[in-house]
Amino acid sequence: MSLQLWIWLMIGITFALYIGIAIWSRAGSTKDFYVAGSGVSPIANGMATAADWMSAASFISMAGLISFMGYDGSVYLMGWTGGYVLLALLLAPYLRKFGKFTVPDFIGDRYYSDTARIVAVICTLIISFTYVAGQMRGVGLVFSRYLEVDINTGVVIGMAIVLFYAVLGGMKGITYTQVAQYCVLIFAFMVPAIFISIQMTGNPIPQLGFGSQGHDGMYLLDKLDGLSTELGFHEYTSGSKSMLDVFFITAALMVGTAGLPHVIVRFFTVKKVSDARKSAGWALLFIGILYTTAPAIAVFARTNLIETVSEKRYDDLPGWFDNWEKTGLLTFEDKNKDGIVQYLADPQLNELNIDRDIMVMANPEIAELPNWVIALLAAGALAAALSTAAGLLLVISSSISHDLIKKIINPNISEKGELIYARISAFFAVVMAGYFGINPPGFVAAVVALAFGLAAASFFPAIVMGIFYKRMNKEGAISGMVTGLLLMLFYMTKFKFGWFGGGSQEDWWFGVSPEGFGTFAMLVNFIVSITVCQFTSVPPKEIQELVEKIRIPTTE
Fold first, then answer.
1. Range 337-350 burial, b when 16+ CB lie within 10 A, else e
2. pLDDT over 90 for what percent of the chain?
3. How far apart are CA 371 and CA 233, in angstroms?
4. For the segment 277-295, what is each residue's pLDDT rounded down to a tens digit?
5. Cα–Cα separations (whole angstroms), residue 503 to 316, 348, 500, 514
6. Torsion angle, CA of 45/49/52/57, rounded to 10 degrees?
7. Is 556 inside any structural domain?
């Protein structure tokens, strides 16, 4: 069977499955829509959380970034997995006991202020839209290559699918769809990795394969180090980033994770706090399978790419090269007119430009794996992007319908009215997400890293101090959130979009990249919050008692 036929078949089957689940699990109440009726089992919730967590950034982009960054790419592995542990162990049980399933709801009630709630809604919307832009770009990437449609058309098709099951089923539809998506994406990620690991090292376990000897008797990492230095790149296993920047990026991703609204809501879809803890453990196991495989895929992809294209005649390159050239994500410019591909670190001499986001998807084709494996990967990449996009869209819709309309604008609104507003909000959120997917501000993983920085800068201090510091009042929390968010937005737009005079890497403050600046902005948020808090009135007695109460462990 041809590749195209395999792809249509795989994507068709998985899409039919998602739509079927959405119709079966459609939401009849706001509780179904927001938290899936709180009736999901810990294992299913663990799978759904893992699918929500492993976005297009994890599936498509992370291994691609690691394959180009080498050792420096480990910041994404450390930050995202460490952050999940931080969230699951430090914050989630307390938030679950507090009983507020959206971050603005928690902040509004804990800081006894509608102003705090509105600030939290604004932060949620900015974070979620930044994050969802990365997912929609991922959807567009898959469609543009595998279904041979324009990348913008791909984004629109992805929008339509997500809209269908997010609007119809809410969190209930999304949760059970995500269980299916996790099964698809993990199978799609692991099968090519196992095939390539056997092909290159004879070891069927990718996590061990990339540290093993190849068929030529040379260790794979030593070989890649040699290939990289020959081409003028730094050694793959040594980093070029400063330790300060590595620390700041890792910390921003960690604490940003702990403040991400679409992950926090996951702990409310189970019946009890003890189930929330169990589902966190299951999710960590399910996430770990992909995250421990990503470095192996990065090494395999990078080695295969260099050996396949470097110093090879352009006319003799395999079919996959031509396929990816058509998408515009891989370009060759013969600068010296010799018909040979020079892939070098020096930008003056380099003739090959590779979009980092294609590395995972092109990997099975470079390794000449069977067509069904390539088709499976395409279905997996779509599953990863769509699952996270759906979770984020729900967060956006609940922030508007529940936190703004129900809690502030119209407290007397009926449940049916709130559900209608939630669905309308989801529709407009999808349209906005599509726009950002068509006009993305960077690579998928880089865009997502910025969303984590925004979450770290705005939410993390307010959530942590809301749980562990009774003295923290509304004035301190609001001023901290506003300061942290504005500072992060300023730095991000200055160095990513060239606003406010722009600047290059040499102009970074203290040598910290925009992806890592969230840590700096978070520290400023903490300082501002605590300082303002000391000069303003203490929180009401009932709020202090509430904080005491949620700190006491419970299994209910």
1. eeeebbbeeeeeeb
2. 5
3. 33
4. 788 788 888 888 888 888 8
5. 41, 22, 9, 11
6. -150
7. no
Q: For 330, phi and psi rounded to 5 degrees?
A: -140, 120
What CATH number does the domain containing 94 carry?
Answer: 1.20.1730.10
Distances in Å between the alpha carbon of 83 and those of 63, 244, 253, 497?
18, 18, 7, 27
In a domain, 518, yes or no: yes
Contact criterion met (CB below 8 Å) for 170 and 31: no
Phi, psi (rounded to 5 degrees) for 213: -85, 140
Contact 58, 225 (CB under 8 A): no
Confidence of residue 476 (pLDDT cuts 50, 70, 90): very high
> How far apart, in whole angstroms, are the C-alpha atoms of residue 273 and residue 91?
12
Range of the domain at 429: 3-309+317-551
> In terms of Cα–Cα distance, which of 446, 452, 468, 487 is closest to 530?
468
H/E run at residue 330: strand 330-332
> Hey, what are 232's tokens?
């003028």
Instruction: Judge contact between 116 and 107, C-beta under 8 A.
Output: yes
Which long-range contacts link 540-546 to residues 24+ away (Cβ below 8 Å)?
A: 540/112, 543/110, 543/112, 544/470, 546/98, 546/110
Q: In this structure, which amino acid lies at residue 482?
A: V
Give strand pairing partners of 213.
219
433 close to 389: Cβ distance less than 8 angstroms: yes
DSSP 70: G
The answer to whether the beta carbons of residues 377 and 63 sit under 8 Å apart is: no
56 in a structural domain: yes
Residues across the chain: 556
Lowest mean pLDDT among 59-73, 104-118, 329-343, 430-444: 430-444
Query: Structurally, how many domains does the chain consist of?
Result: 1
Cα–Cα distances in angstroms (integers) from residue 519 to residues 72, 399, 488, in the given order: 18, 25, 9
CB under 8 A, 24+ apart: contacts of 349-352: 352/309
**219 DSSP 8-state letter:** B
Predicted model pTM: 0.78
The separation between the first and the last C-alpha atoms of the chain, rounded to the nearest angstrom, is 54
Do 85 and 255 contact (CB within 8 A), yes or no? Answer: no
Residue 97 included in any domain: yes
Place of tokens 């990065």: 298
Q: What is 187-216 written as a DSSP string?
A: HHHHHHHHHHHHHHHS-S-HHHHTTSB-TT
d(CA 472, CA 539): 7
Q: Which amino acid is at 437?
A: G
- Ordered DSSP codes for 294-312: HHHHHHHHHHHHHHHHTT-
